[in-house]
Amino acid sequence: MTRLLESYAAGRWYAASAEGHPLLDAATGEEVARISSAGLDLGAMAHHARTVGGPAIRELTFHERALLLKDLATHLTGLKDEFYELSLATGATRRDSMIDIDGGFGTMFSFSSKGRRELPNDTVVCDGDLEQLGRTGVFLGQHVYTSRPGVAVQINAFNFPVWGMLEKLAPAFIAGLPTIVKPASQTAYLTELVVRRIVESGILPEGSLQLLAGSAGDLLDHLGVQDSVAFTGSAHTAGILRQHPSVLHGGVSLQVEADSLNCSVLGPDITSSDPEWDLFVKGVVTEMTAKAGQKCTAIRRVIVPAAVADEMTDAIAARLAGITVGNPDDESVRMGPLASLGQREEVRKAVEALRASSDVVLGDPAATTGFAGDGERGAFMAPVLLRARAGAVEPHDVEPFGPVSTVMSYDSLDEAVALAARGKGSLAGSVVTHDPEVARTLVLGLAPWHGRILVLDRDDAPESTGHGSPLPMLVHGGPGRAGGGEELGGVRGVLHHMQRSAIQASPDMLTAITGRWTRGSQRHETSEHPFRHSLATLQVGDTIASEPRVISRADIDHFSEFTGDTFYAHTDPEAAAQNPLFGGIVAHGYLIVSMAAGLFVDPAPGPVLANFGVDNLRFLTPVKADDSIRVTLTVKQITPRSSADYGEVRWDALVTNQDDEPVATYDVLTLVAKEG
């Protein structure tokens, strides 16, 4: 008997005593493994995640969590040949495996990078600006994100056994949540191998990741108000999950990525002589054949102008005719089998439903010959291209989760938008045009119905990742039929797992809570210039208040001549006097910022290594000739870099005039050594 897959639960590997259900190689029909979760204590898994995994993760800062993800992605990348070999059994070609395996590792690398660049080296995130709630500024509001003391459960589809797990794990881990993974049974053997290597590495804290191999059983019964479930799969199963008591009444957050009748629209400006024509054909064929069309973002509806519909249909069919289908172990094969014989049967049924209002142009879904492999034992199916008849309904309602697309035509852009909208919500759409007005009209029409839209033309094609590739920095999800969920999206995906709360407090209390200096809270003026302090001794609230400096008319004239900024408000007294905002000659804003730097900068070499930016610069009060300015510089936020011997310091800069009126406010960003 082949090996029974094991679950990793509560710190140990568990093998069910039951015989288990057989999992077959998609290409050969041979048994790869068996699967069962019989006897597994699912309540203990949830308890272990909350009491062991969660606390261990939340002891780490966002940067520390992100670095662990980088270490893990690096480690797994060194083992990918092993994963590629087993991936063949899922029906994946090498290109398919790259999308799944390398795509999963790349997603972890991306989240690691964005987590360290865009989140503080802390465990709390400030969201937006302060809100002044009182007249004098002693009562303020600040939105913050904090980690939930729960568990993130992911229930994944069969088509991406690696990426599907890692793209959900990465943001949840950075957000401070432990994860329980329940992969789809058909390809769970690949997920189990990756989890096994993760556990063996010891890189993640114990309890961060658990694996449920087999039925989810009563897992949702053990979840509560701080827990979440991310589901990828059919709308039917999503409907069952939505009705679960823990979701309806127990406060469990459910995120769904379900059916999606994605479309690609060809603009009316494109003819067969344009480069966009070939880009469109290639895009449709790629989405039909990558992973044998078993992608939630694959193009199911091909929407083209009526004038070129016949020509485009022929072009797509001609390109599809050159696709070799068979065992992915064969180097000549361009498209592998569907995940199982059962999946093939589902796709065949979908094609029959589509034929009620569409005609088959290419491909015989019932064929069992003509493949580079055994068509009886392997789940092979040739690509099927259909052409919708006038008034077709089924292409907008039936999702064939395989290498199947339907061509339909439109006579106006409004009709193209209406056809796309009949899909009732999709994950991804694409618009292929070189006309900016066409692009605007189609995108604004499609956007309410799509989570992501690719606008493809000759200019962005060299770097385009294609219609169906979810990217870690962009949101993945869609409205309506697509489930209404949202994943990825860089830091948005992290914050999605966290709780946003509005905190009302005094400036000093907000500084203590957030770890970021709040204007109005105490400053610590020290005898030694803050620029002489390394990160080891620098503290939030450390302040330098400069002496005043007069800005003369000669300073303004010199700056105008030196920089070439001769705007009339700085050079023409009569014209400046007519300006209702100034009433006379005023200093350049950047002259004020430059002089402010001269007032606070300590010139001697020291721990401050570089100034790398200015954020949120605002000019508030005009400075006229012979006015004076002074600057108060306060340490606002300290962010050590875990991978370097320096960190980032954000300083609050307040420039005031001789009447103590604010002239300018901004943040100064510096790199400061950790020691010395």
From TrEMBL:
The keyword Disulfide bond does not apply. Residues 545-642 form the MaoC-like domain. The keyword Cell inner membrane does not apply. Gene3D superfamilies: Aldehyde Dehydrogenase, Chain A, domain 1, Aldehyde Dehydrogenase, Chain A, domain 2, Hotdog Thioesterase. Keywords: Oxidoreductase. Belongs to the enoyl-CoA hydratase/isomerase family. Belongs to the aldehyde dehydrogenase family. This is Phenylacetic acid degradation bifunctional protein PaaZ. It comes from Nocardioides pinisoli.
